[in-house]
Amino acid sequence: MTDIYNFDVVVAGSGGTGLSAAHTAAQNGLKVLVIEKLNQIGGNTRISSGFFAIDTIEQRKQGIQLSYDEAVKQLMEYSHYLNNGSLVKQVVKNAKPTLEEIKKMGMKIKLNPVTETTQFAHRNNLYAGGSYHMYEDKPESYKNIQDYMEKEGVEFWFDTSFEKLLHDENGTIIGAQVTNNIGEIIKIKAKATIIATGGFGGNKDKVAQVMKTTNLRTLGVPNMGEGLDAMEEAGAVDIDGTALIHAAQLAKSAVSKESNKQHLAGFSNSPITRLLLTPLLWVNDFGTRFTNEDVVYDTVKWANAGWSVGGKYFLIVDSSTLKDYDIKPQLEVSKAGPGASTDKGDFIKLADLAVEQKTAFKGNSIEELAEKTGMKKSTLCKTVENYNKIIEQNEDTEFSKSKDSLVYDIKNGPFYAFIAQVAYLGTIGGVRTDSHMRVLDKNLNIIRGLYTGGANAGGYYEGHSYPAYEGLASGFAWTSGRLAGLAAVKDIQNKE
After folding, report:
1. For this UniProt entry, which residues form the secretion signal (predicted)?
2. 341 or 272: which leads in pLDDT
3. Which CATH number fits domain 247-424: 3.30.450.40, 3.40.190.10, 3.90.700.10, 3.40.50.880?
4. Is residue 476's pLDDT more than 50?
5. I need a surface site. Which of 58, 229, 235, 463 has the fewest CB within 10 A?
6. What average pLDDT score do residues 468-491 get?
């Protein structure tokens, strides 16, 4: 027997999108149910660090006055106008009131000054680096939010998985079918259904298919794409679902599992990470240099460059460079992505350990290093020869790397090649919506009763890339959720 329950609004997922949508519907007097397959709220938003917003109280207190129009312009230009301008404008203008709502519910916020940005490439851009409203005391803040929402009448069902959408004979969505932790099938009848299940980051096969590579490293998020699949079955169109590629990581040991726990969010406590996070020589599988390595100072550009060569690349160093890193590298160590360990260490020993763990290769000559890595000898030798000339002349005639980064040549063996892999923190993008997060079909008609946001909604980003404006994806999650909730409230009220 299948149980049937009735609500005004059912929300699938309790990350920032789902929480914001549910709160907005409840504060407007609607009866709201949130289903969550985990045993706590927060979803993938819980691992995010902050919220992108413009013209906030926090910014004004620091004398920062930013323009909505300029923010929209920058986001549109970054994405080459492939994103949905009306949606971008709506989200940017609604981020501030959304931030005030989540603060009211109990999320503690601290504005991160642009001078303290971990994205060194953003130091001169208040929009990219000075709009990061960081979450403080997250465990307590999420508890505060859940308590607040329960007091306003939101009902939470944990350990309950979304299965499929329910629809009537006209194709209008009338709720969702779910399954609880003891296998009971339950039908939720609702006037509005909001899909906030967080993309498909847990589906490695789909990510590999979309990104055209199996080399990417994952954080291991649980979202399998069930919400996206259900919306597509209902007639929606996935226009830009993609992995949220985010910096790169050193390869995980192939022979030891001792370090596995160190790789949460890509972090390793080995000092060797300082090599990963400095602009040394990077080459692709063929032994060819492929980018300006200064991209290491910008999380997204770094990941994009790595993805362009299949999601994996090698950083090449000689023994003299490693010995210099024992003391202090002459290059500024990036704090982008997972950040680098500041622990002291013997870098030659660490490099030899990486070779033992099959995360690096070693050669007494460049020719031997090429052979070990599978590169063509003549190609890698020519790359290293050209790079050494660039260092000697202090001018990068290939990719215009800054002069400050032209420090380490590659002349004194043994030589090492460390494997780096692009990482992803779930997915972004998804189905086409209007600017109020109503889901559209292939003919751009509204699918009645169906709303989405966050990592299930398309139109905010450009294909495989997203602007590295700090807190952008998390801010979009909360704000798009609020917009979905407001649209649901309006549509329900207009029917009554």
Report:
1. none
2. 272
3. 3.90.700.10
4. yes
5. 463
6. 96
CATH for 3-241+429-495 (3.40.50.2000, 3.30.2290.10, 2.40.30.20, 3.50.50.60): 3.50.50.60
Cα dist from 288 to 71, 291, 366, 382, whole Å? 37, 10, 13, 9
Q: Is the pLDDT of residue 485 over 50?
A: yes
| Residue whose C-alpha is closest to residue 306's, from 177, 370, 211 | 211
Longest dimension (CA), the chain: 78
Distance CA 390, CA 403 (A): 10
Which phi and psi angles does 110 have, rounded to 5°?
-135, 125
Taking alpha carbons only, the member of 318, 415, 309, 310 closest to residue 361 is 415
Task: Please enumerate in sequence order all residues whose Cβ is within 8 A of that of 451, keeping only pairs 6 or more positions apart, or say none.
Answer: 21, 192, 193, 194, 195, 433, 437, 438, 439, 484, 487, 488
The pLDDT, as a whole number, for residue 262 is 44
Among residues 205, 231, 230, the alpha carbon closest in space to that of 216 is found at: 205
- Classify residue 280 by burial, with Cβ atoms within 10 Å: 0-12, 13-18, 19+: buried
Give dist(CA 116, CA 464) in Å, integer. Answer: 28
Confidence band, pLDDT 50/70/90 cuts, at residue 265 = very low
Residues ≥6 apart with Cβ < 8 Å to 496: none
Report the pLDDT averaged over residues 428-434.
97
pLDDT of amino acid 270: 87
Residue 468's pLDDT band, with cuts at 50, 70 and 90, is confident
- The string of DSSP codes covering 6-22 is EEEEEEE--SHHHHHHH
Cα gap 179→188, rounded to integer Å: 11
Q: How far apart are CA 399 and CA 94, in angstroms?
A: 39
Structure tokens, 242: 């993609």
How far lies 422's CA from each of 272, 274, 450, in Å?
17, 16, 34
pLDDT in tens, 150-170: 999 999 999 999 999 999 999
Dist. CA 412–CA 422, nearest whole Å? 29
DSSP state letter for 252: P
The pLDDT assigned to 267 comes to 54
Confidence (pLDDT) at 8: 98
3-state helix, strand, coil in the chain (%, to 5): 40, 25, 40
- 402 half-sphere exposure, CB direction, 13 A CA radius: 11
